[in-house]
Amino acid sequence: MNNELKVPVIIPLTIGIIAISFSSIFVKWSEAPVSVQGMYRLLFTLLLMLPFVWKQFQLLKKISFKDAALLLLSGTFLALHFLFWMGSLKLTTVASSTILLSLQPVFVMIGAFIVFKEQTSKAAIIGMLIAITGAIMIGWGDIGISAQHIKGDLLSILGTVVVAVHMLIGQKLLKSIPATLYSFTVFLSAVIVFFVYNAFLNIPMTGYPGKEWGIFLLLAIIPTVFGHVLFNWLLKYVTAATISMAILGEPVGASLLAYLLIGETLTVTQVIGGAIVLTGLYYFLQNTRKQKRNKPPAPIKKPVTVVPIVKKG
């Protein structure tokens, strides 16, 4: 399998960042319950993906029970992420919600070290800390200004934790499952979780005006297909921590869009913070690439120790 990306990684990362930056705007525009938004967002995404993934369905027969359980678990955590984070947008500003979501690399890096023993260079950690500092500055003026904002902040933090778990599970599963098939099965699992949630709480799943259906479709096409699906595909080539770090660009794009489209103001502190985020992001990605380039390939030494043992008989 060729794990070498054919284009510079910054290109798909930039497309993904711009796409997911629109997510919070669409959520703000919608008046439907967030669980309904999340369900139809992923359902429409499944329909869009179907022509590209149906030929891979035969591979589902080869998936072990353990991997199937992990796929369901990953989908459950993705549904929880949408439920918590999209819910936070109803209670706090776009800047505050996306800022706290951008702390995701902290949880991913800790989880990757515990689960995969994944090492991160000191330079990359410095870049991450710089970016997180800038991210905090972006929403500093809005965070915790009222009880409602505090509740929204807490929901965003919960959404950050569960999406970090979702990404770490994905990093493991994508070693043996094609990216498109992984995304499809995980989204399907999340849709089922949302359906059960809505049915259990008697949340209406039909009867919404045309405007809402248009928003559901936009949520599927822009931030999901060109955002989350793209990032899932990129996990084949870069680590979950790198994807999480790239998503730090979302607060910058989302805050700018919120200013232009829904009238949420930006302070000087938020503008400076955005510049710091991008600086830290660039520094992190550069040092992550250098770390991979300088790391000697593990299999080189293996034949040296194995060959004498094989020839012994």
UniProtKB/TrEMBL annotation:
Residue intervals passing through the bilayer: 7-27, 39-57, 69-88, 94-116, 123-140, 152-169, 181-201, 213-235, 242-262, 268-285
Main localization category: membrane
SUPFAM superfamilies per UniProt: Multidrug resistance efflux transporter EmrE (SSF103481)
Family to which this protein belongs: Belongs to the EamA transporter family.
Coiled coil regions in record: none
Stated name of the protein: Multidrug transporter
UniProt keyword tRNA-binding present: no
Top-level taxonomy: Bacteria, Bacillati, Bacillota, Bacilli, Bacillales
A GO CC annotation given for this chain: membrane
Subcellular location(s) per record: Endomembrane system
Alphabetized InterPro entries for the sequence: EamA_dom (IPR000620), EmrE-like (IPR037185)
One Pfam family this sequence matches: EamA
Superkingdom, taxonomy of origin: Bacteria
Keyword Transmembrane: yes
Signal peptide: none
Membrane topology classification: Multi-pass membrane protein
Organism: Fictibacillus phosphorivorans
Keywords per UniProt: Membrane, Transmembrane, Transmembrane helix
EamA domain segment(s): 15-139, 151-284
